[in-house]
Structures are given as structure tokens and as C-alpha cells.
Amino acid sequence: MKRFLLLMTALTLGTLLLPGAWAVRYPLTLTDDLGREVTLKEAPRRVISLLPSTTETVCALGACERLIGVDDYSDYPPQAARLPKFGGLYDPNIEAIVAARPDLVLISKYGRLEEPLRRAGVPTLAVHPERFEDIFSKTTLLGRVFDLESAASRLNARVRADVARVEVLTRHARRVSTYLEVDPTPYSVGPQSFMGVMIEKAGGSNIVPAALGEFPRISPELVVQKNPQVMLGLTLEEARRRPGWAGLRAVRSKRVYKLPRDLDLMLSRPGPRIGVALEVIARRLHPELFR
Prior knowledge:
By secondary structure, the protein is an alpha/beta fold. The protein has helices at residues 2-17, 52-60, 78-81, 94-99, 114-119, 134-145, 149-170, 194-201, 220-226, 236-241, 249-252, 261-268, 274-285; strands at residues 28-31, 37-40, 47-49, 67-70, 104-107, 124-126, 176-183, 187-188, 204-206, 230-232, 256-257. The chain has 2 domains: 28-147, Rossmann fold (3-Layer(aba) Sandwich), CATH 3.40.50.1980; 174-285, Rossmann fold (3-Layer(aba) Sandwich).
């Protein structure tokens, strides 16, 4: 507990010492996730966010009122869920976006939004968190974009404290071999992905080798071979129906968990609620630590 209190103190002091007590100076030039240098003449006031994790971060910074629209999948917080929708990553409504006259569109580095919006004279900034530490670096970047650097520092400190609170509990726990399924075809997560890092922080040991990549499609035989103690992302009944899986340790001990939709979305988005999602995983892997 003493170590935890020291860590919390360090995080608090870090918040005070981080830059952010001064206003951002515009024009502001940033390098986005497409490798472009993007110059903002002033803090944006009419923004469309086309990635759910970015939408959540913008709102957590206190800039939700500057959003005039979001993608079809941005459903949190409720204020963002009520905003006009402008399509998805690969089927955006370009005409509607242009007609809304945003002064900035926050896009993913995937999809093909940058070119048509550039031709239409609409400024874009690609912000796409993928690794665990990206959660914090993108929050800092968005804090600069919206001239909310102090809020970004506080948000990062709060999320790091949420994560640290779980890590303190799981740090010395015996590792639990874990399979996390993100799609039943099946796709899983590699150790280097942000979700893979969360498995480790929750006291698990990911059965997927790093060599397979961050979000690989795996062979069902790999799961049989690794024989995990816990499975996440599917139901016990689904696991039992798969050839060769009924005798796996996780199935025999009934430690197969399909998360509720809201928790599943929270887990899949590298954003400000990641600490809450981490605790959800840790509770499945180490229920004895939360009694």
C-alpha cells in the first residue's frame, strides 16, 4: 500500500510539473498519424470525430461541445451518441461532412478520407491510437489541438492512476494463461497490441505469440495446443462446440467469459476508460484479489 501511495503522489506531482499551465500558441503545427504536418490557425470550434476512441478522449477533455458530429460507432458518452452521424471508417458520408462545414475532422490513419476532404478544402488530422502508450500520447496531442493541455495532463494522470491501482494488485500474482478472442473466425490479440498489454497488466499471460502480429487471425489448434486457463470474448457454450476445445482447462473449469457489450466496447477502445476495462479483465483472471 505504501508503494501505491508513493506512486499516486508521483503521478500527482507529475501532473503539476507537466507543461499545460500556459495557453497553446497558434498557428500550431503538428505531425499526425499519416506523417503529415498539419497547421491549425486556431483552436477548432466545429469538429467531426470519426473514431470512437478519439470521440471519447475529446469529450473526456471537456471539449464535447465542440463536436458537431461523429462516426456511426461513437456511442459514448451519451452527449456524443446524440450527435449527427457521418458514416464509418470505410463508408463515410463525404458530402454530409463537407456540408456541415467543420473546421477540423479527426480521422483515422486507415480508410480514404484524407484525400477527398483535402480536395474539398476541409482540414483533417489523423489521430489513431494503437499501442498502449498511444492512449496517453494522443490525449496529450488532442489537448494541444483544443488548447486544453492542463486537462490532458490531468486526464492522463487519472487514467494512469486507474491502471496503477490494478497493477499494484496483480504485480505479484501468478500469471494466468489467457486467450482473448475479438472475432469468432477467430481473431485474437498479440502481446504488443494495447489489448495484449492489458492482459499482462491484469495478471495474465497471453497465449498468442508476438510473431503473429497485433491482431492476428489464429488457428483454433493454437488454442488447443496452449490450453489456456481463462478465455475472454466468447461464451462457454461457444467454446464447448468447437472441435477439441471441450477438454481445455478454461472450459472444464468454466472460466470462459463473454463480456457485456458496454464492457466489450470499453475494452476494445484505447481511450480514457481503459483503466476501468483493465479492472474488468483482472477480476476475471484473479477474482481472489478483489474479494
